[in-house]
Amino acid sequence: MNVSVLVAVAEVATGCPKHTDAAACDGWSGEPDPPLNPPIGALHPPRALPNAAGEPSVVRAGAPEKLFQLVGDLDRESAPPARTPLQTETRFGLVGTDLGFPVLHKGRMVLFFGDAIPRKPFDAARRPPDADVVGYVDVPSTPMPVPTRSGGIDLRFFLDDDGQYLAARLDGQLLGRNQVPYAGFSDGARLYGVFYVGAEPGRSVIGASPDDGRSFAKLVDVPTDRIGFLVPQVVPTAEIGGLAAQWSDPRTVLMWARPRQQEGEPLFLAAAPLGRIADASTWRYYAPTAAGDAWSANVGDAPGVFTRAPDEKCRGPFSVDFVPGLEKWLLIERCLPHHFAFRVADGRLGPWSAPQVLYDRDADGGLCHFMHRLCDPGVRDPSAPGACCDADYQPEIYCKFGPNAGDVRPYGPGVLTPYGTYDPAARTATLYFLMSVLNPYSPMVMRGALRAR
Fold first, then answer.
1. CATH code assigned to 3-452
2. The pTM is what?
3. Low-confidence residues of the chain: pLDDT under 70
């Protein structure tokens, strides 16, 4: 897999050239090259705010565990393979997908998935391979039963008129490989998606949905090439220091942003008035001074909101959520070589703690269990190089996947906040989150715990 795909958001494993013989790839001959993006401008100096002093106030309480595979019909970790709780191929025509960023909207938890794989034969006009998909879970006003190994997440998808999943569209167009909806937000009345588009290095655009997630229309191109990925939330303007002096809109879209193509640089903060987010001239960037919180119209003034160690490199989509009980903000991101790291803060603006490992592919038992290690099934000696240590891989389809495809790692964190619980006696919050692994090609529903010191 080349470097551009490793940096890409959806990170789809592929075993054949992108443009290939359709007859050899289940009728799929690849897709046109995505449009080129403008070149990245001058890099900004990685100035950064200090991390919170002292030891982190929250620690991991044991290794997170896989509860179940979210997508597909068969979970091949076990022998023989087990039926998945949701049976998405049979019910919706969905063989595989990744990501799954959650947004609460009108009594639902909407989930944005990328680069979906339809069952064969596919309908090129409705849902070609690598088109995206939006799902949802109804969220009642009463506490929700927590997920278990047997399921417990009633995930559904918008349906096309043939009864299979409806592929997501931006401005009426299906998006191709590695062009995905990776984040979103809701203002209570309207749902918004954030899309990664164009050839690598990609850029982000924000789209608004007139129909609660069935389709999207572009609202604004993210107005700076410094932003690669972002996580937006609608917040009261009065709760964010310094913003009341910038605009009178009572609501603000606060955005944590990952620098584009700069995996060693920390996140920074952007903001825009909700009612004028489409006006790029209104966007501001967090640039505190010795006098206190401040915002600048110049993105180059914005420091990182925490400090990275020289060897700390993180990339791709990430998550930021509030954890009730712990009363902390939680940041989770995918870091190299193959782990989820987390930081906590008392407030949205920080200061953020030093990073800790939330889940490690090797140390926490993912590899060779529900994260497939690349191998050659023809090697019979289990001690020989290339021998398989598991059979939990996505069967080859459309010249993708198979036993010898993919460098698996955890990516695409998505915290399922409606299911979270808190034990005050143990001072421990239980989290349920999605973790994509690449091969097999499905997010895994994970359960983990964080404990206050």
1. 2.115.10
2. 0.93
3. 1-24, 31-33, 35-46
